[in-house]
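Subject: Interface between my chains keeps coming out wrong

I've been trying for a while to get a sensible model of this assembly. When I model each chain on its own everything looks fine, but I need the whole thing in one frame so I can look at the contacts. Pasting all components below, labels as-is. Any help appreciated, I'm running out of ideas.
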Amino acid sequence: MKYSQDILFSAILLASGTAALKDGVGLKPHMGWSSWNVAQCNAASARYALDTANKFISLGLKDLGYQYINIDDCWSTKNRDGSGKLVPDPSKWPNGIKAVVDQIHGMGLKFGLYGCAGTQTCAGYPGSEGREKSDVAQLVSWGVDFWKYDNCYTPCRQNPRPQTCQNPTANTTQFYAPMRDAIVAANAKETNKLHFNLCNWGRDQVWTWGANYGHSWRMSVDNWGDWASVERIGSSAAGIHQYSAPGGFNDLDMLYIGSSKINENQSKLHFGLWAITKSPLVLGLDLNKISSSHLAIIKNKGLIDINQDPLGKAATTFRPPGAAAPAQGKIYPYWAGPLSDGVVIGLCAGTSAGKYSVNFKDVPGLSDRTYTWKEMFTGQSGSGTSISFDISLHDMRVIKVSTT
Ligand code: GAL
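Reply #2:
Try treating it as a single job with all components included. I did that and got this:
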C-alpha cells in the first residue's frame, strides 16, 4: 500500500513537473572530495577532512569550484548513545563533528557525511532506518551540508538481512522516502540546506525517480578505479542523459584519478567523460600524494566550466554518417551536448586509437556553417565546418563549439 502511494506521489510530481526537492540545492553537479577511495574507514576522520580542506585552498581547487569535503562510511561509533543519537568516533573526531564543520565553513567550504537507509551502513555502523527525523536533526545541529545515503542492510527477504540484499522486500524508493521527507522538511526551515545524495547503486532505475527523492543519485555500482569501471559506468551514462537537470543529476561515482589501475590517457577520458555527462566531480584521491599531471587533469578549468554550465544538460552519444553503432559496455567515440553558449563535443578513443573527425552539420545542436571551437585538453582552437583529431588509445578530446 505504502509502495503504491509512493509511486502515485512520484507520478503526480512528475506529471506536474515539480520535483519534491525543488529547494535550490544541487543546481549544478556538486564538486568536492570524498574519503572513501582514499583509505576507506581510516580516512573518515577530522584529520583527513581538515587536511583536505587546507589542500583545496593551497592547491587552488577551491577557486575552481571544489567545495564539498565529504566523509564516507565509518565516522561514528558502532553503537548509538542511550538516547538513540549517532556518536562521532572520538578517536577520529576528538572535538566532535561540529567543531570541524565550523572550521570548514570558516574556510568557505562545505562538509558532508554518509549514512544508510538500512539498519547498518555497508561497513557495519549504525544505519538510519526508523530514525530518519532524529538523524537529520543531528546533521542540522552540526551544520552538515551533504548526506550520502547508502543501500546496505535494507529490508530483505533473507534473514538475517545481508549487507547487500539481492531479494529486497520492496522497491528502493520505499527505503529512501522517509529520509527524503525528513530532509525536505528540514530544508524548508533551514538556511543551511542539505544536499541529499542517493547511493542505491542504480537500482530500480533510480534516474527515473531520483529527482523526486534527492539532488543526485548514483546510477551504478562502485567505480573500482580500473578501466573496466570507467567503461561500464561511462558507457551507461549515454542512455540516461535526459534525467540530469539542475536540481538533480546522475552521479557516475567518485573520480579515481590517481588510481594505479588506470593510465594517463584513461585518467583524462575518465575526467572528461564525467565532466561532459554532468556527473558530480568528487575527487577520490589523497591530495597529499597527487602527481602534477593528475593535478592538471582535475584542475582543467575548461572542462570544469563545461561541467558547471548553468544549463545542466548532460552530453550523450550521437552517430555520424558512416560510424559504427554503439557497442554495449564500450565507450562510444562520439558525444555531444548543449551548453548555455554552445555545444560540447567529446571524442573518445575508447576502443581504438586513430583519427576522429566530425562535420559540425552532423552534430546535434549545430548546423551547416562555420563555427569557432576550442579543445580543452590541448588548448588548440580554430574555426571551420569540421574538426579532426588524432587520438591515442583511451584518450579523449573535448571540444567546445561556440554558437554565440
Ligand atoms: C558502498 C558505496 C561506496 C561507499 C561504501 C562504504 O555501498 O557504493 O561508495 O560509500 O559503500 O561502505
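Reply #3:
Confirming on my end. The longest strand covers residues 110-116.
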